[in-house]
Every structure is written in C-alpha cells, then in structure tokens.
Amino acid sequence: MVDINANMPDPPCSPIQFHTEPQQIASHCEQWTARLVAIVDQICQRTENHTFDNTILPFIEWEKIGLREQRVLGFYATSSANSALRDESRKASKTMEKIEGDLFQEKEFYAAFCAVQKEKELLDPEYQFYMNRLRENFEKNGLTIVDKEKQARFFEISKDLKELISEAMANHDADTTGTWFTRQQLDGLPASYFEARVTKEQDEAVGKVDPKYWVTAKEPDLLPIKKFATSPETRKHASILKGQRAPGNIDLYPRIFALRDEAAKLLRHRNHAALETHYKTTKSPENVLSMLDNLQKKFTPKMQDLRTKYLALKKVDPQTECLSPEERSTIYAWDQAYYDRIMTDADKGYRQEDLMEYFPLDHIIAEHFKTFQRLFSIRIERYQPRLNETWHPEVSMYTVWDAQNSTNSFIGWLYIDPYPRTGKYQHFGHYALNPGSIGPTGARLHPASVIMMNMQSPSTTTPSLLIHRHVQRLFHELGHAMHSLLSLTKTAALHMPSWDRDFTEAIGMMFESFLSSPKHMRAISCHYSYLNEDYKAAWLASHHGKTQPERQIPIKWLEGDGGKHDVFNQLTRIWHAKFDMAIHMPETPESLHHENLVRFFTESHSAITGLANLTLSPTPPSGNGGQNIDRWGYEHAYTGFRAIVAGYGAGYYTYMLSQVIAHDLFDVGFAGFVGGGEKDSKEVGGGENRATGMRFRELVLGVGGRQAPADTLKSFLGREVSGNAFGREYGV
C-alpha cells in the first residue's frame, strides 16, 4: 500500500463518523426529515417576490449537508455486517426517498420554482444549469400533468415504484444463493481459489471423503469456475446458479416494468424508454436501437469466427467425450469463457492462473494510485482510522491531497472495501458518499468516495489475486473516485453528472484503456512471491523444482490482440441493452409476464451472442418439503439483472455509448504516452503527459456535473466525439 507521508499536515476536517447502533439511523433520519421539511416550508410560505437567492439558494445550501446525510444513512444497507443496521438503513432510505419524492411533487414548491424562472434572472452558469435540471426533475415527477385524476394516479404509481424497487434491492443485497461443489467437480481451478473457502466433508458412505466447497452466485466465485473448471457439467451448473439469484424478485420485476410503462404514458410518452431517452442525447428509443443494431452487425462475424475456434477446441477436449454428439458439437453459454481462456493461453504462451500471480490486490491498488498521482499532481496517503471512522475492520482509508504546489491542500477522503461478506453489495461499485461543494462561508466541503469490491480474501500463503478483468474493473471504479474527488462545483447536486450515465461511465472506462498498453501493464505488475519472504517460501514449496518467476510479467504475454477476446463481452452488453430497451417499450402487457421475460432473456442471449442455452423452468419448484427438487432444473436469470431497476432502466445502452466516448478521450489525451509509438519511452506522468493529465483534471474531472457533458467533452477534445478510436480498437 501507499506509505503514510509524515510530512503531510492533518486533514482540515474530520472524516465521516459511521453509526454502530440501529437506533442511531432512525434518529438521524428524523432529524434529516425535519430539516428538509423546514426548508421547503420556508420556501413555500413565501407568496411574492420570489428570487433565486431567497427561493432556490436556501435549498441548494440544505443539499450540501442533506445529500451527504441521505447517502450515509442509506449506505449501511449495502455495506454493514450488522443485519439490524442494514434493515434500519433500508427503512431510512425508503422514508427519505418518499420525502424527496413528495418534495418534487409539492405543488407550492413547483409554483415557487416557476415564479423564479419567470423572472429570468441572469445567473451564474452553474446555477442556471441547476435550474434546468430542477425543471426536468419536476417534469419527471408529474407536476406538469394537467388532469388531476391522472396526476393522482401518477403520484400513486411513484409511491408504489419506490416501495417495489427498495424491496428488489434488498433482495439483491441479502441474496445468499449458492451450492456445494466437490473438489473433483472443481478440478482445474487454481489452488488460490480453495484457500479461505468454506468447506465440509462429504458423507463417508459415498466410499471416499471428498471435501466440498461452498460457492456463491457472486462473480468472484463463479467467474473462475467458468474460466478454469475442466468439467462441462460444473460450468453448466455455475451458469444455472447465476440464473437463480434473487428469487424474491420474480414477483417484483414484472410489476416494476408494468408500472414504469403506465407512468410514462401518464407523462405523455409512448413508454418508459421514450421518457428516459427524451432527456438524453440519444433523444429516442429508435436511435438507441439503431446504434445497437449497427454494433451488433459489426461484432457478429467476429463472434462467429471465435465460436468456430471454440468448437474445434471442444471437439478435441477429452472432458467432453461423455457428452452426446449434439452437445459436443454445440457451444453453450458456459463454454465460452473456458475455451476463450484456453485459446488466449495458447495465443500468448501462458496460463491465466499464472497471470493472476502478477496481480496481488494491495500491490495493484498502490500502482493505480501512482498513476493518478503522476497524472493529476495529487498525493494519496494511507490513513489509520480511529473509532467509528469506517464501517468494517477490512476497510482501508486514505487521504487525498493536492500536490500542485507546496501548500499540499486537502482534497478529500477515499475508502476501499475489498472482500465479500453477508449483506454487502455483491459487485464492483463506486459510491460518492459525500459530494463536494462550496460551503456558506466559502470554504470547501470535502468529498468522500468509496470503492466496493468482492475479491477473494487472502490466505496465510497467498495474497488476494486478481484476474486481468478485475485489474481493469478496479481502475475503472477508482477513475470514478477521481472524478468525484477532483470535481469542483458550488452545488452538491451537480458534484457528479449522475443523470448522464453515458458520460459518467465513459470516465471510468477511459482509465481501463491505460491497461491496454503492454508497457503499462508490465510496469504495474509484481509476482506476489516478491512481496515478502513468506509468500516466496510458500510459492516455492507449492511449485516443486521450479525457480522463482520473473518479478514482472514477461512482455510477450501482454502483446495486444486488437480486442479479439472482448468481442463476447461487447455482444453481452448489446444483449443486456436490448433486453433493457425491450422491457421498457413493451408491445403488449403480456410480454411483461414473468414466464415471457425468462424466455425472452434466454432466447435473446442466444440470438445475439450465438451461444446455446437451456430452456429450464422459470420458477423454483415447491412442495415436498424441499425434497427431491432438481437443483439444476430451473432459472430466472433476469431477476439478477440489478442495473435495470437500480438506475439504469432504459439506460443500459450507455455502457456501449460510453465506450465510444472513453476510447476517444484516451486516444486524444493519453494513448501516445502509454501505448506504442515514438512517445512510448516516456513514463506515465512525465512531462507532456502530466500536462495532459492536468488539462484533463481541469476541463473534465474538475467540471463535475455543472454543465452539459457535450460541452465538457468538446472543451477537452476540441471537437465533437468521434467513434474512430473505438472502431480501430475492435476492427469495426
């Protein structure tokens, strides 16, 4: 990790104090509600002479503290190890969301806003942009609906949706889907997979003792099985297990989709997809689908070529000899990662489990920090938390400082929560826990960012090791953290451009592009046996007769493939995006029935990726007291698709659009300094690259969400966004 720098001054503010008792949540939620109600009452009681300063500015000032309190109170639901604290956090979130929803459906508040807007005051550009976003918020919350009965129905739907979405998120966070696999079933996985994993002994009546290992439906557990398990049956079961997540959402998701459709129509839009795209640069669902269709056409031939190569490998795989002729001549969804890994290993001359050994988590975090420090002239220092300054003992904490000059001014706080636990958010993620802003005295209110991960815990002989994709995901989420920490806005609500996800995601994706450079990947790598003598001794003991590997990855392992092995991931994103659009522009109410959603999710995956899937029961069997149930006879995979109800409804396509933006930003700003070419000899952060990094910090990260993303991008690129860099990367 980055060492503590004794020369750094103490931070000018205390970090967030995290609650440890459930009753604290309810008490603080009541205080939050009382302060918000008081501010809104004050605004609504004014009957004349409405100005920005006396009507809107008080609300902006409240947000600077209120948004932080709201986010922290809701944060425990996906982070705390205390189930009672998680429950109280969910209750508080529901209460605050209801109050906030009522606020933007408050007619007197809307009337006050309209009175200010009518005055047409000449405002600071950030405040004018804030007013535009506030107007959109009122519109999307139904205050422009003229018919009183329709408006009342819209308000009722809004309330129901908040309840249903909150319950669905709770189901995701509390999901414990998992099963036992024997050691034999998991043959092929690296030794590190089995360390620190829950085990039990198989019944000796079977004839031999074979330890069983508990495998959850979380990505860090399933992805290694898909890549390394030699048994096709095991890989199939892992794929089905993923499709059994969050069974409680079987009843909730169809209701959410149907209510969204009804609400959109009340707002005079054709459907929810039309509503959401109306406020985005894409403007219509048809434009989105056209973009996705064009990309699918370009990637499909490449996937067909890959599938042919996978099939050739499968036909000579001795593990498939027990399969039927039809199964052996078919590439299923659970075959792709396994044969792609074998093909990649053959192309590059290494095994991916060997590659993982060069990516120990703590070392990679430190190296990512170095890149940010050099590019943006900042310092990231390890901070030793005191009582209640984190929410879990495994969380690491950092202070971030501005190193542009000798003053070393404080920027903000960064937290990293690396390992899985019950009740925790199950994926990678970034939380802008405390949005930065300018306080009433003119002093900076410092931001705080959290990185959530679910990496395998270290053992006594091996640190937590990352696959290449997780190295990228970590840099992606840290990129979001840099966006949050380096944003400089007056208003807390515009601290991040959260309403425009294509732009927000593009920033994280741009940082992933640094890792396409063999030079950069080699520079940040370190074989874990060099971290300390104990790891070295353990590695040598488990690799009899072998010498210690090179300290850094052999450069020949890192030679590029033009995005060849990412084609499947691109088509998977297109599939998710098309499913998301389809359910939010339903042709008939029946298309949103659970059975139809399950079938469409599976069939559309096969149609877009070209990989075969099984047709299983759409619901878990019931009865018989749980006896004689076919564990592998059902799945309802779409209920585990968290994003479509967690902020990306009719917006998942932004992941594809974000890639186009990300590649353009990287190509214009950074490719020459970390990729090939004559500038390749320059270190990341040296000379011109530091100047480019500082320009990116000022024109992109520093702007936050205080202006339209198109304006931000044009100021850095010097032109409109181009898809040329994305096309070159993938040969499309």
From TrEMBL:
Residues in Peptidase M3A/M3B catalytic domain copies: 231-731
Cofactor annotation comment: Binds 1 zinc ion.
Keywords tagged on the record: Hydrolase, Metal-binding, Metalloprotease, Protease, Zinc
GO biological process, one term: peptide metabolic process
Keyword Zinc carried by entry: yes
Cofactor(s) needed by this chain: Zn(2+)
Family from the record: Belongs to the peptidase M3 family.
Protein name, as recorded: Zincin
Example GO molecular function: metalloendopeptidase activity
